Amino acid sequence: MFMTQKTGVVIVAAGSGSRFGDPIPKQYHMLGGKSILAHCIECFARHADPDLIQVVYNPAHQDWYESATATLNATGSLPAPVPGGDTRQQSVLNGLRALEAKGPDIVLIHDAARPGISDDVIDRVMTALQTHPGAIPTLPVADTIKQTDRDGVITKTIARETLQRAQTPQGFDFKTILDAHQKFEGQEFTDDAALLEATGLDVICVAGTTNNDKITHRDDFGRAQSWANTTDKETAHMSQEEYRAGTGFDVHRFAPGDHCILCGVKVPHSARLEGHSDADVGLHTLTDAILGAIGAGDIGQHFPPSDMQWKGAASDIFLRHAADLVRKRGGRIVNVDVTLICERPKIGPHTPAMCQKVSEILGIDVDRVNVKATTTERLGFTGREEGIAAQAAVSVALPIN
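Given the sequence above, the corresponding structure tokens read:
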């Protein structure tokens, strides 16, 4: 139906998601085994060539972006993401300009916080673009709408029959929407359709879906999780999972210094840990546990101590590599548990920061990460404060081929 239309896609993923209330931007949270952003990209990849799918992101989220797209971009077919602007409108314009040289006929502009986008909605938008310069999915307003003054006193009841809730993707003739964005650059519009409205062009509404509502707050994520779980059940016959467990153990001795790096966090101490890299015993054992769960050897095989490029390296490189191997196999990390064994330094005050750091590196929710500590009651080398030991356990879900 759409063979004559060269379709571009702009996915806006530059937001910080501050209203979501989590340090990890919502577009990088895992939902049904993959990131929210990955859900969006996968759906649009069925309607457009991968090299015409342009993600707009925040460069400060580079690590999260790479983890979220590692499996999707295994062949390097996705264009490099472009930085967003100070406003959503500027971010969209940056994405449109990145696509301009590729000459799309139409463009679909989508918010990355809407992972429930479906093929049916995209098809309806694209069909409408055969006869209109713009088309957007909408839902009717079910509640009675009241207009009030600044004191909250009702001044008017608005007929809900004339009202629609706008969703994305919003579709447009490419040149028309690019011209409109450039004409109104620096001005504030609530969505892309409003720019065409300002130029006097018609934008038609097509039917949206409740699954496509935007994730803004944590309660919305629970709704989306229900949708994802239902989708998983419907496709279970095509993509079944098996669960794998992995364990790790590591030891590092103390050396002269003034701090230790533990689970990615700088912990003040009267000594440092000795090792070829930064000697982060927590991340080393967690890396081994993940590699063990997928049968991929150990950390020394992937990052040999004899290789000088890893001298002094930050251990999050090793852990991120292990997580990427899981994603490249179509898997997901379900949960991780790390135990640090030492008399000193005191670990408890730092565990929240450690959990947060590990969740960021792995690209999983922080409630799937646990870091704790124990002592050996003054027995052995840890009891004599000669070093720190760590052990880890992980659970990984892998697809059954």
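The first helix runs from residue 36 to 44. Try to locate this feature in the token string yourself.
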